[in-house]
Write a structure and sequence with these properties.
Blueprint (H helix, E strand, L loop, with lengths): L8 E7 H12 L5 H9 L3 E11 L5 H11 L2 E6 L1 E2 L5 E2 L3 H11 L5 E5 L6 H9 L3 E6 L6 H5 L3 E4 L4 H4 L2
Parallel strand pairs: 1-2, 1-6, 2-3, 6-7, 7-8
Antiparallel strand pairs: 4-5
Length: about 160
């Protein structure tokens, strides 16, 4: 396992939906994306920071998207889909995975900010390719298989004052 050092090139991929729902259900609070970015970079060289967000037509979301950009994230925005039965779906799993695999040749470390266990296979793949993989999420809402598939897991619940507004 590689350790953290200042010359490492880092890509940060943040699953905003996953983080939002976890922070809301666990603490009824919002994520401090500025702190999240700072802790994820951890003194290394930031190559890309991408926040994957969903547009659900709520009044405050455009200012949230703008704030993410001001902090230093690129935003990738997907419109929520409503199906005939009224169910809604919007997830970025495939988009995030494709970006991670594409970026793997250009970075030393990928930091995934999500607790979604669907990314455990991606972590295994990236590590096999020689990329260090870190996950930052809330332990209570993070799949065990995701934690097991990473080089390092940072539990946001242990540092609520840092990661929550």
């Amino acid at each position: 396992m590689t350790e953290i050092h200042p010359s490492q090139r880092v890509a940060i991929l943040a699953d905003a939906q996953n983080l939002y729902h976890s922070a809301q259900s666990l603490y009824s609070r919002n994520i401090d994306y500025s702190s999240l970015l700072e802790k994820a970079v951890s003194g290394r060289e930031l190559t890309r920071a991408i926040a994957y967000v969903v547009r659900a037509d709520s009044p405050e979301e455009e200012s949230f998207f703008e704030a993410l950009v001001d902090i230093g994230f690129e935003t990738k925005i997907k419109d929520i889909k409503t199906f005939g039965d009224g169910s809604k779906k919007a997830d970025w799993d495939v988009g995030m995975s494709l970006d991670a695999v594409t970026l793997a040749n250009h970075v030393d470390t990928v930091v995934l900010c999500t607790g979604d266990g669907d990314f455990s296979r991606l972590c295994s793949h990236l590590r096999h390719e020689g990329v260090r993989v870190e996950v930052i999420a809330f332990n209570e809402s993070t799949a065990d298989e995701l934690v097991e598939a990473t080089d390092a897991f940072l539990d946001m619940s242990e540092r609520q004052d840092t990661f929550l507004l």
